[in-house]
Amino acid sequence: MKQSAKRLPVKLLLNPAHFLSFGFGSGYMPFAPGTFGTLAAIPVFLLLSQFSISTYVLISLGMALLGIVLCSYTSQALGVHDHSGIVWDEIVGYLITMFMVPATLMNIAIGFALFRLFDIWKPWPIRQLDKNIHGGLGIMLDDVIAGIFAAIILQIILFLL
User: Is 15 part of a structural domain of the chain?
Assistant: First the structure.
């Protein structure tokens, strides 16, 4: 579960690892940093959607693996397990949600809403993973699973439309 801590100095963003962990700075928003982190994922999705499926998968997988290291590093530096400003996991979760989804405004909005729903709601097994797996892997894993759940529902919606 995301933890808030005292407001952090902006100079923290000068460190490239923290800059990425904080979603290019979007995690510094004073309210709803996870939502702003997911918003920061939209341009990343739009860029990746221009590439082949295999490139999209490889880059998303690379971002997920990098996220384990980034989130671990930043949470250790802050002394907080999962600071609410660490939103790299939201970026990766949204990319998973949007896998093989045409980049239309409606699809982007539905994917956004579904991912945020699963990320906030944390149905089983997401909540258990979030509570029991710590470090960078724990920070990333609940959002990866939320992204998979959201992707399944989004694909069903697109199939029915």
Answer: yes
The confidence score (pLDDT) of residue 161 equals 87
Please report the pLDDT score of residue 2 as a whole number: 59
**pLDDT tens digits, 118-146:** 999 998 988 888 888 989 999 999 999 99
- Which of 87, 100, 89, 115 has the alpha carbon at shortest distance from 29? 87
Banded model confidence at residue 3, pLDDT cuts 50, 70, 90: low
Domain count, the chain: 1
Supply 106's token pair.
């409606």
Give domain status of residue 26, yes or no. Answer: no
Which residue segment(s) compose the domain that 135 sits in? 10-20+31-160
